[in-house]
Write a structure and sequence with these properties.
The structure is a homodimer of 216-residue chains. Chain A is built from eleven helices and no strands. Chain A has helices at 22-46, 49-56, 60-66, 70-85, 87-90, 98-115, 117-128, 135-158, 167-183, 185-192, 202-214. At the A-B interface, helix 1, helix 7, helix 8, helix 9 and helix 10 of A face helix 1, helix 7, helix 8, helix 9 and helix 10 of B. Chain A binds a DNA duplex (18 and 18 nucleotides) through residues 23-24, 27, 48-50, 58-62, 64-66, 68-70.
Chain lengths: 216, 216
DNA sequence: GTCTATACTCTGATAGAC
DNA sequence: GTCTATCAGAGTATAGAC
């Protein structure tokens, strides 16, 4: 059904990787791609192995030859996702120019929504369900990172280099505004006309918005 | 499980309402409330009648005495929701002061996220799934409304009464920023600490944001 | 109106032939 | 590695007693 897309940034070095043949790797990737399509639209419980197998062009038992069970597939997808999900925020550089840095962060997030809308929806689905599977990650990884960057934003504001705004809401606003174009793409498409690229015009708008918001 | 909450604005006059006894109405409302809880977290396919029945404190057959099937419950919830969902935007008044009107619209949307987070998540789930059940509504009701209000915003911008910004992205930004506090409440709670109200500080932040964005 | 029992389908997962 | 056959359990829905 779905055309193969560039693999979502996979870093080497995750634990427990057994050696796999070329065909193994290839089929696992086909399955993960199909699973991403299904999980990102229907959530974990709403997705079925039948649907994933159909999407992948494999039989259900064959699919379960490559992955132990439904949960493992979903976990692997989330692991791949989270590995990359925080990179844009991590790159916010204390040594850079504040407004340039924040603007660049916003652009990186917007680019993720453009390149990886399904990953964004997978994440959105997980949060809507109360984040049962990634709660540990959010508490252990995301929260400290956000706290650190919020401190940085506060410092910048204190120094008069950006306007004095709540740093947490600033970060949330970037998440909300950029991810919206991926998560609510269906709605935007129906409103703007179906041939229309949902992200058309988004970047200039967000640039204007944050330019005006951040000016000291 | 969940405490009964104020009923989401229900307008009278929808079609096909048979006369119902007091106990009928009461139980239907209990079921709808339980169903809202479950559908808004797991989506249509991820929700089960068992879970809804448990949440409602009724047996499954009893639940199906009040509603023909799973689909009917979901449809009734969406119908109630959509009935009210567009009101904040409808109220955007051409005769009012542009900045005041847009700010008031933002506040109404934020208030909906505060008062009806589950309804917001129900809507988000439906859109994530590609809006299969509300596509007709979006095309027939939402789209023309947005087009009309976008025209109004354009007129205001042409008259120099607000900054010249893309009206569609302006509307999307209000949706994204306000609904985010309901849809991603789980994440925000884990980041800001669980005792914390997710919406704390949101209104001043959004006021500052739109004040700066809209100033001509 | 509400319950127990049950029919029937879907879904996740396994066995075993090839 | 891939398939057919199959199972156990969950899930939707109905029958029928009370």
């Amino acid at each position: 059904m779905s055309a193969p897309r560039p693999e979502f940034a996979r870093k080497s070095g995750s634990a427990g990787q057994r050696p796999r043949s070329r065909i193994q790797k290839r089929n696992r990737q086909i399955i993960l791609d199909a699973a991403l399509e299904v999980f990102s639209t229907h959530g974990f419980r709403g997705a079925t192995l039948d649907q994933i197998a159909l999407e992948a062009g494999l039989s259900k038992p064959n699919l379960l030859y490559y992955f132990d069970n439904k949960d493992t597939i979903h976990r692997d997808l989330l692991t791949q996702l989270l590995d990359t999900w925080l990179d844009p925020l991590r790159m916010l550089d204390p040594r850079g120019d504040p407004q340039t840095e924040i603007m660049a962060y916003m652009r990186r997030k917007l680019e993720m929504s453009r390149a990886y809308p399904r990953e964004s929806r997978l994440f959105a689905n997980e949060i809507l369900q109360g984040a049962p599977r990634i709660e540990p990650f959010i508490r252990a990884e995301l929260r400290p990172l956000v706290d650190a960057k919020a401190q940085l934003l506060t410092d910048w504001a204190r120094a008069g280099r950006i306007a004095p705004i709540d740093p947490y809401h600033l970060i949330f606003s970037i998440w909300a505004l950029t991810q919206h174009y991926a998560d609510f793409a269906a709605q935007i498409g129906m409103i703007r006309g179906d041939g229309h690229d949902p992200l058309d015009g988004a970047e200039p708008f967000l640039e204007a918005l944050y330019t005006r918001l951040l000016a000291p």
